[in-house]
Amino acid sequence: MTLRDTPPFRADHIGSLLRPARLLRAREEHAAGKIGDDELRAVEDDAIREVVAMQRDVGLRSATDGEFRRTSWHMDFIYQLGGISRTDEKIQVHFRNAEGELDFESAALAVDAPVRLTDTIFGEAFAFLARTVGPGVTAKLTIPSPSMVHYRGGRAAIDPAVYPDEDQFWTDLSAAYADQVRRVHGLGCRYLQLDDTSLAYLNDPAQRALLSSRGDDAEHQHLRYIKQINAAIQDRPAGLAVTTHMCRGNFRSSWAAEGGYDFVAEALFSELAVDGFFLEYDDERSGGFAPLRFVPPGKMVVLGLVTTKRGELESKDTLKRRIDEAAKYVPLEQLCLSPQCGFSSTVEGNVLSYDEEVAKLRLIAETAEEVWG
Questions:
Q1: Measured between alpha carbons, how far is 154 from 202 in angstroms, rounded to an integer?
Q2: Contact criterion met (CB below 8 Å) for 266 and 209
Q3: Interval 165-197: pLDDT, tens
Q4: Spatial CA neighbour of 207 closest among 253, 288, 151, 285
Q5: What contacts 145, CB < 8 A, 6 or more positions away?
């Protein structure tokens, strides 16, 4: 099996990593006004240098900044888009785990002006990462997909005085994303990941019922999302690899949705114009591998077989067996290995230790080396 020199890599990961205690303290002190912006940034810079070194040391060929400068994986980006504002209304997302249930609450959003890109979002953060990774490691930028701007509030979040025609909202949103793609490429980005929970959530009948109850077309929503992601990346510069990651929720080791990829699989895999799909496959919530039969030649599938929701380490034999099972539906040369999600999609992080996180990333790199060489 030939070595992959372009993303996604045989051993890869999603993006977010557990925040070190000193970074969490610095964020609290900054929020309380005890330290300034420069002092917080210095702590962030040091923490990012260390976590980039860790990713390299365990054998990964891509590195992120762990999303250490963010509070959440998506809203920190979305609120920086022109035309989108926080509101006083709260969004509640219901999560579950093996021990029980919990709710995540965040500010809602409103589309109250034409959507546009003003500044390059995460531009300075990426530039620092690119300077830090060193030779042989590709800096990876993760941002929420265009779908996430819509999924949080649907048509009801869009001011009809601004967008009486929802098609124009989608045109402007995809254009803003296309501008972001061009700008980060200009900063040296060659690996961009669009994180998208909506395309996984829509496999869950309960989630589709929720969308229908607020007036959205749940049965066809994934087709609109695929269309708009494609519009955002269709003119991406040569040499920029774009992947998407889909999971069913990740907050303090809990999830929000269940169900295999069957509902979206045919359209998703055959029509979404990304270079690779990061797919959550760590337990029975994700269903089987049969939907992978729709993956066309040339597209990569990164199997998220290693869970980030608990610290127990998977066995190599189990991972290899599951890779073999997936290879019945898509050729082995189109497969890679990763965790099923990030380790810290929000600043709180999942319920495992730093050492357990490192062990899981090392396991992925070692297993990939043994499977693909």
A1: 14
A2: no
A3: 999 999 999 999 999 999 999 999 999 999 998
A4: 151
A5: 194, 195, 196, 198, 225, 229, 244
CA distance 175 to 343: 31
Chain centroid to CA 142: 6
Cα torsion at 193, 57, 324, 8 (round to 10°)? Answer: 20
d(CA 72, CA 148): 13
Give CA–CA dist 69/320, Å, rounded.
Answer: 35
| pLDDT reported for residue 1 | 60
Per-residue confidence (pLDDT) for residue 155, from 0 to 100: 85
Given pLDDT bands bounded at 50, 70 and 90, which one contains residue 280? very high
Structure tokens, 305: 């077989």
Total residues found in the chain within this entry: 373
Q: How far apart are CA 102 and CA 95, in angstroms?
A: 5
By CB atoms closer than 10 A (0-12, 13-18, 19+), residue 116 is: middle
Cβ atoms of residues 9 and 62 within 8 Å: yes
- Separation CA 42–CA 27 (nearest Å): 12
Contacts of 11 (CB under 8 A, 6+ apart): 59, 60, 61, 336, 337, 338, 364, 365, 367, 368, 369
- Other C-beta atoms closer than 10 Å to the C-beta of 253 total 21
Is the per-residue pLDDT at 83 higher than 90? yes
pTM for the model: 0.93
So what's the pLDDT on residue 342? Answer: 94
Between 154 and 173, the more confident residue is 173
CB 166 within 8 A of CB 116: no
